[in-house]
Design brief:
The protein is an alpha+beta fold. The chain contains 22 helices and twelve strands.
Length: 566
């Protein structure tokens, strides 16, 4: 008889639903990853326990992002569960004490005297669910363990009342930039966790940005960061005071730290102004998840070494993805296994959030071995692009919904949940762009099985001064003749003739002609893709779907071409 154990930790969803800022989300995510890292490290020292997942080797350097998932799988003896529970208790006791110490060192006198209460709070706040399964079969029962873990999470421990300490926990997350946890995450280099508005304007201070713009924008951003830091320090200290002078000082500091003021300074600087775009007020929130990983695991040989090898491949992918996202200008929040969460600028010079998604998909395929030709490992993405003041929780929820309900089910979003499975294309980017005025649009685009995706990504990177006027003209003209478009949309020759006859003025020549040619190719691709998806899902109305795709993509292109305005 073989004995297997599965562990999941929490409460992750409950915690994330209460965060208000990027630093708080990063802190909560990294904390749970650190917890799992310590549990894995302690388990590795026990010879009779064989870790299947996650990787027991650990990252090579501090990357400032959680790389450990919220679950692990172990093979061990019949009494292995007792040993695992002992290790969990020891890890949580140690971590809870460290967090209580850390909070006491952050500068608020009322916290220093609450060490025992805070340690007790954390020890009870963290939840662990350990399940076990005995089998005489050769297979390693990962799926069965996952189901048992899921069932266990549905029945969390009963808590009679809100525990004394929850206020301190969220105070800690607000002050995470000054914490020992953050210093351990980044090593010697401990940058401030960037806010959403800071992430949105990363293009202006990118190393490859034009020198004068980069220098001027960098000076303004430095002032902005100092103002934000000063306001945060006052906010932390003022949480337990009714002193009107302190409250007034805090309000003034918060006014100085307002993003809008600094965005106006950037837009008003003649060295920065030519490079400012409206999308600098927006940020992309991205959830990604691996496709066909269950099938990849199902093809593994039934021994712990092969499972640990795949787990290590996942860790190496997480390290590479962290470097790629940071190099783009993004903030990786969580990269555990095949699950990703990060914030990123909408566009960085000749790259954009869609090309970054394709790069991450390529990386995933590079690191994760293909075990089944029919079901290669890949990534799907849910991308919510929203104004920097849009509520963080709502933007996170939207990105997660786009991933689970659209990207992972495409093109069967309208089917019942049980029908989504094997037939879905997956490896899809599903995005929504919510504009400040409340209008929203978006679409789902398979990365490798869509003719639209590469054309759209290329157009996003194309530079053409009059692009917006041209796109407005294209959208207007096509909106007036939907029946004609549906008739000729899949016919390359007739579509070319339509574009030639419709856009024949002098303003449509030169650079405009090349841009129109790319736009025409996108229209053709949208109709070809729609025909393909309509075969898979008869509920899709080919013409209507193609036009929705065209308008969503062209409006996104318009958005990225818009010059900055207040």
């Amino acid at each position: 008889m073989k004995y297997f154990y599965g562990l999941t930790i929490g409460p992750i969803v409950k915690t994330i639903l209460q965060v208000r800022a990027t630093r708080e989300l990063w802190g909560a995510s990294y904390l749970f990853s650190e917890m799992m890292k310590r549990i894995v490290g302690a388990l590795e020292k026990e010879d009779e326990l064989k870790i299947l997942s996650p990787s027991k080797q650990g990252p090579k350097k501090a990357l400032g992002v959680g790389l450990y998932p919220d679950h692990l799988f172990v093979e061990g003896p019949e009494e292995g569960g007792t040993k695992i529970q002992t290790i969990i208790r020891e890890v949580l006791d140690g971590l809870s004490g460290e967090l209580a110490d850390d909070i006491g060192n952050l500068g608020r006198a009322d916290m220093e005297s609450r060490h025992a209460d805070l340690k007790h709070f954390f020890r009870n706040y963290f939840q662990t669910y350990l399940v076990s399964l005995a089998t005489d079969q050769d297979e390693i029962p990962i799926k069965d363990l996952q189901q048992l873990m899921h069932n266990a999470e549905l029945s969390p421990p009963y808590q009679a009342q809100e525990m004394n300490g929850s206020d301190a926990f969220f105070y800690y997350l607000a002050a995470i930039n000054q914490s020992s946890l953050k210093k351990g995450a980044f090593g010697q280099d401990t940058p401030e966790i960037a806010s959403l508005p800071e992430i949105g304007i990363k293009e202006l201070i990118h190393p490859k940005q034009e020198a004068a713009c980069k220098e001027a924008a960098g000076n303004i951003v430095d002032i902005w960061r100092r103002n934000q830091s000063a306001a945060l320090q006052l906010e932390i200290k003022a949480q337990k005071t009714d002193n009107p002078t302190q409250k007034a000082t805090l309000r003034e500091a918060q006014r100085k730290a307002e993003p809008e003021q600094h965005l106006k300074l950037l837009a008003g600087d003649i060295r920065v102004q030519p490079y400012m775009r409206n999308y600098h007020k927006y940020v992309a929130i991205v959830y990604a998840d691996g496709d066909n990983i269950g099938k990849t695991i199902g093809k593994l040989e039934a021994n712990p070494d092969t499972y640990q090898a795949l787990s290590h491949d996942m860790l190496k992918f997480g390290e590479a993805a962290a470097e790629r996202i940071k190099g783009y200008g993004g903030l990786p929040v969580y990269l555990g296994g095949d699950d990703l969460l990060f914030f990123a600028p909408v566009k960085i010079l000749d790259r954009n959030i869609f090309s970054l998604s394709a790069e991450l998909d390529d990386l995933f395929r590079e690191y994760i071995p293909e075990k089944d030709d029919n079901y290669p490992p890949s990534l799907s993405f849910g991308i919510s692009i929203s104004y920097h003041k849009f509520p963080l929780r709502e933007a996170l929820s939207k990105a997660h919904e786009l991933l689970d309900s659209r990207a992972k089910r495409f093109p069967f979003e309208d089917f019942p949940e049980k029908k989504k499975g094997e037939e879905a294309i997956k490896n899809t980017v599903s995005f929504r762009l919510l504009k400040h005025a409340g209008h929203e649009f978006g679409q789902s685009l398979p990365i490798r099985k869509s003719a639209c995706f590469p054309l759209f990504s290329n157009l996003l990177s194309a530079s053409f001064d009059e692009g917006n006027k041209l796109l407005s003209s294209v959208v207007y003209k096509m909106s007036r003749s939907p029946e004609l478009l549906d008739t000729i949309g899949e016919d390359e020759e007739r579509l070319a003739h339509y574009f030639k006859e419709t856009f024949q003025k002098e303003v449509h020549q030169g650079a405009a002609a090349r841009y129109l040619q790319q736009t025409r190719a996108l229209v053709l691709a949208a109709y070809q893709d729609a025909a393909k998806y309509a075969v898979l899902n008869p509920n899709i109305k080919k013409g209507k779907y193609a036009r929705e795709t065209i308008y969503s993509l062209l409006r996104t292109l318009q958005f990225l071409n818009q010059k900055y305005h207040d």
